[in-house]
Design brief:
single chain, 137 residues, alpha/beta, Oxidized Rhodanese, domain 1, five-stranded parallel beta sheet, 6 helices
Length: 137
């Protein structure tokens, strides 16, 4: 298998280089899109120092099944229309949490454009669970 890969890369070096370039560009774009990613530990530190607010953008069913203590719930598709509700929290960093990180970057970017300080939980609620941290129902 590895021999086939090496043969392909040496035979089609232009295609291989283009693939690697596109892969690097995609990774760079995705990293920039959502802004700062926080670990579970960094999120906890921000919340404990009262400098952050968790914004959970998962659907109602997922949120009800378990969420981080003190999280404000606004589903992903409703954030744009309900952004005014966040005005009173403008002094804090809004930490966007979703299931696995798929929507948090876009929401974080939109919040930054609207003048908020925003970050995302790296890996979403799945990483929070993976670190054996508590959820409330």
């Amino acid at each position: 298998m590895l021999a086939n890969l090496i043969e392909f890369v040496t035979t089609h070096y232009v295609l291989s280089a283009m693939f690697l370039s596109l892969l690097a560009l995609l990774a760079f774009t995705e990293a920039r899109k959502g802004g700062q990613s926080l670990s579970s530990r960094e999120l906890t530190a921000l919340i404990n120092s009262e400098q952050g607010l968790i914004l959970d953008v998962r659907g109602q069913k997922d949120f009800s099944a378990g969420h981080i203590v003190g999280a404000l719930h606004i589903p992903y598709e409703k954030v744009a229309s309900r952004i005014a509700e966040l005005e009173k929290h403008k002094a804090k960093t809004l930490i966007v949490v979703d299931a696995m990180g798929q929507h948090a970057g876009a929401v974080s970017r939109d919040l930054k454009k609207a003048g908020y300080k925003a970050a995302k939980l790296s890996g979403g609620i799945a990483s929070w669970r993976g670190d054996n941290l508590p959820l409330v129902k």
